[in-house]
């Protein structure tokens, strides 16, 4: 791993970025199926999957964990915040469906760079206290996320950086507002997370996603890049004096960049300094 990885923390730390959206009611699964990119009805109770909400043009608005608590309760863990705005936008599409959408302000997330005690893979575990445990790691990088009632614990900047960098190492883009509605799921490498389906029925952007998949038109995808200093999202990646891609997500000296699938010979640069591609860690798909 890079020498610029933020110091590893021990135990659970409160994370400020993840926010939760709740979908409840008899039609919540059908509503989610019509709006999101993954196959919600096939998801068993007490399991979760990665999913996305796309624009009509097939660009990613949000990447999130979709938790199926039961047949009438879904929770979306939005790792880059924006839960209130997302809930408000989703309500515009409810029409006559029996579903209640809200920003779950009474719930917070805490993370640990350690294996979960009960949750395994896509199967989550709910403790007697009501806290939900999720396995959000891989064999090379164990991680646990817990969702529970709000606490007074303040978020820790050092822990936040370590967690964010671990997301990038596992290929989970963390999108700031300027990067929403910019990239297709394929460009963000979301096939690595099994975050979208090309087999399910209609959802916003589905036609573009399916066409890109079946016609093999994706020419760019995600790469993990070690930069000399932190590069803001949107910063160009250059090679041989020309722009070849862009930073989609960054944390300290690590970044996820959208680059051509076939790179020419020549060193990469970001902000005029050398940048090096590193291996993404596998195993975050659910």
Which helices and strands occur, and which strands form pairs?
Elements: E1 13-15, E2 19-24, H1 28-35, E3 47-54, E4 60-70, E5 73-78, H2 83-91, E6 100-103, E7 107-112, E8 125-126, E9 132-135, E10 144-149, H3 157-169, H4 206-215, E11 220-227, E12 236-239, E13 242-251, E14 254-260, E15 268-270, E16 273-278
Antiparallel strand pairs: 1-7, 2-5, 2-6, 3-4, 4-5, 7-10, 8-9, 9-10, 11-14, 11-16, 12-13, 12-15, 13-14, 15-16
Describe the protein.
- This protein has 286 residues and is α+β, with helices and mostly antiparallel strands.
- 14% of the residues lie in helices and 33% in strands.
- It has helices at 28-35, 83-91, 157-169, 206-215, and strands spanning 13-15, 19-24, 47-54, 60-70, 73-78, 100-103, 107-112, 125-126, 132-135, 144-149, 220-227, 236-239, 242-251, 254-260, 268-270, 273-278.
- The strands form 3 sheets. Strands 11-14-13-12-15-16 form a 6-stranded antiparallel β-barrel. Strands 1-7-10-9-8 form a 5-stranded antiparallel beta sheet, with helices on one face. The chain has a 5-stranded antiparallel beta sheet with strand order 3-4-5-2-6, with helices on one face.
- It is globular.
Characteristic key phrases:
286 residues, alpha+beta, 6-stranded antiparallel β-barrel, 5-stranded antiparallel beta sheet, disordered N terminus
Q: Biggest β-sheet: count, sense, barrel? A: 6 strands, antiparallel, barrel
Enumerate the strands of the largest sheet in spatial order, edge to edge or round the barrel.
11-14-13-12-15-16
**Element pattern in H and E:** EEHEEEHEEEEEHHEEEEEE
Distance between the termini: 24 Å
* Unreliable runs: 1-7
């Amino acid at each position: 791993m890079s020498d610029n990885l933020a110091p590893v923390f021990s135990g659970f730390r409160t994370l400020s970025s993840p926010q939760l959206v709740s979908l409840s009611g008899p039609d919540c699964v059908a509503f989610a199926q019509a709006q999101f990119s993954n196959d919600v009805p096939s998801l068993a109770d007490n399991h979760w999957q990665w999913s996305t909400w796309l624009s009509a043009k097939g660009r990613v608005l949000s990447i999130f964990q979709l938790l199926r608590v039961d047949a009438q309760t879904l929770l979306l863990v939005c790792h880059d915040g924006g839960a209130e705005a997302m809930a408000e936008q989703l309500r515009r599409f409810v029409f006559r469906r029996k579903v209640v959408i809200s920003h779950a302000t009474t719930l917070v997330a805490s993370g640990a760079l350690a294996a979960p005690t009960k949750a395994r893979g896509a199967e989550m575990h709910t403790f007697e206290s009501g806290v939900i445990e999720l396995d959000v790691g891989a064999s090379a990088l164990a991680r646990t996320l817990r969702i529970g009632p709000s606490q007074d614990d303040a978020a820790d900047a050092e822990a936040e950086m370590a967690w964010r960098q671990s997301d990038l190492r596992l290929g989970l883009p963390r999108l700031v507002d300027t990067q929403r509605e910019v990239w297709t799921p394929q460009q963000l490498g979301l096939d690595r997370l099994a975050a979208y389906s090309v087999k399910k029925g209609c959802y916003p952007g589905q036609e573009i996603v399916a066409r890109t998949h079946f016609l093999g038109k994706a020419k760019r995808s995600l790469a993990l890049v070690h930069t000399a200093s932190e590069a803001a999202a949107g910063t160009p990646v250059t090679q041989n004096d020309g722009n070849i891609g862009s930073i989609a997500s960054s944390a300290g000296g690590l970044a996820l960049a959208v680059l051509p699938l076939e790179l020419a010979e020549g060193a990469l640069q970001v902000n005029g300094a050398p940048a090096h591609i590193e291996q993404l860690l596998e195993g975050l798909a659910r």
